[in-house]
Specification:
Layout: E1 4-5, E2 7-11, E3 14-18, E4 32-35, H1 40-49, E5 55-59, H2 65-74, E6 79-82, H3 90-95, E7 100-103, E8 108-109, E9 112-113, H4 115-124, E10 132-135, H5 146-152, E11 158-162, H6 175-184, E12 189-192, H7 199-207, E13 212-215, H8 230-242
Parallel strand pairs: 1-13, 2-5, 5-6, 6-7, 7-10, 10-11, 11-12, 12-13
Antiparallel strand pairs: 2-3, 3-4, 8-9
Helix pairs in contact: 1-2
Length: 243
């Protein structure tokens, strides 16, 4: 069943909404849609109050550990944490209160998948695949495909797919990718990138036959957006459980 899944994106210790394709090692190229005056713990509490399980906290670069820990303290066992997750700290974040850890770039060395690193992360989690989410952020020049999904499914509990070319632009989701994810994935999967209207939840549900969840960021009113209200998304989720 497709669900709305919220996020808490952290950059330099603040909750922000960033245009995904502009995030790099240099600040000059960074484009920010929104910077919140509220702490990460506020959003964690908000999500907890509405039982929005599966929400993810993403640390975008250094300087975000304290804010991430504040969010986890507000909702212990209710949030997934990603960004800078390695074999050395994966279990630490579980101990700090994360429901699951999300691993991304650590699994790739010079754009090549490292099975050794995947095994190392799992070993640090005592080989509990339920604690691991694999984030396959992709761009149009480097698409996620069925082969990589099939390769990784045995080692994780779910996938998070960031369509970097769509993130933060509010120009619509990657419909082809969402449809393919619904076909390829046998594990839960969440798509992020480009959502702008409440109707996008219906669209993702239809394209994926209800197999793909949707994260909405910049378009939400709680992140300064005008595309849709947070309470509309909460209501949409509630309506799905009644059908």
């Amino acid at each position: 069943m497709t669900r709305f899944r919220p996020c808490i994106d952290l950059h330099s210790g603040q909750v922000k909404q960033i245009v995904g394709g502009t995030l790099s090692n240099t600040s000059s190229s960074l484009r920010t849609n929104y910077v919140s005056k509220l702490p990460a713990s506020y959003f964690a509490t908000l999500y907890k109050e509405h039982a929005l399980n599966g929400a993810h906290v993403i640390k975008l670069g250094p300087g975000n550990d304290a804010a991430a820990q504040e969010a986890l303290a507000a909702w212990p066992g209710g949030l997934q944490v990603g960004g800078g997750i390695t074999a050395d700290n994966a279990q630490l974040w579980i101990e700090r209160g994360a429901e699951k850890v999300i691993v991304t770039s650590y699994l790739f060395i010079e754009a090549r998948f490292s099975h050794h690193r995947l095994k190392a992360v799992l070993e640090s989690l005592k080989n509990d695949t339920e604690k691991l989410v694999i984030d396959l952020s992709c761009r149009r020049t480097g698409k996620v495909n069925q082969e990589i999904i099939r390769l990784l499914e045995p080692y994780c509990s779910e996938f998070l797919i960031h369509a970097a070319d769509n993130e933060g632009l509010q120009k619509g989701i990657d419909e082809e990718l969402v449809s393919r994810l619904g076909e390829w994935c046998t594990k839960p999967v969440t798509y992020a990138g480009g959502a702008r209207h409440l109707e996008d939840l219906d669209l993702v549900k239809r394209l994926s036959s209800g197999k793909v969840d949707l994260t909405i960021g910049s378009a939400l009113d709680i992140f300064g957006g005008s595309g849709l209200r947070f309470d509309e998304c909460v209501k949409w989720n509630e309506e799905q459980t009644l059908r």
